Amino acid sequence: IFKFLGAISVDLGNDRIKPYLPTILTPLYRELNSTYAEQDPTLKNLSQEIIELLKKLVGLEVFSLAFSSVQKQANQKRVMRKKQRALQTVANPDIAARRKLKRHKNKAETRKRKIEFLRPNYKAKRPRSHTLKDLAMVE
């Protein structure tokens, strides 16, 4: 898709690409700023190349304005999601409690995995699965 965006932008040219610039920059910005653990470096390099191509195509000033608007939109979305999550915690405490329990359980599992990776001969205790406690509903 990134190659397609680059090809379309070159094909449209300088004047006709300007209205579509924020739409094109949105996925490129998302890929550049992603913090996923399993991130593909080739995608990041490709998005960087297409951004450089767009800079040369439309000029630095127009590109900067479009890129800053994309950054602002992304930050606003992030803030809105954070607010909604905080409101959901207040509105639905049972869902928030379940989410918190799940997060703590995942954190403990991650810690055990790290210990096993750093000290291979040490085996961390794993919780027994399929016990009555695991099958019971959280109230």
Automatic annotation (TrEMBL):
One of its GO terms (cellular component) is small-subunit processome. It comes from Chionis minor (Black-faced sheathbill). Residues 1-116 form the U3 small nucleolar RNA-associated protein 20 C-terminal domain. This is UTP20 protein. InterPro entries: SSU_processome_comp_20, UTP20_C.
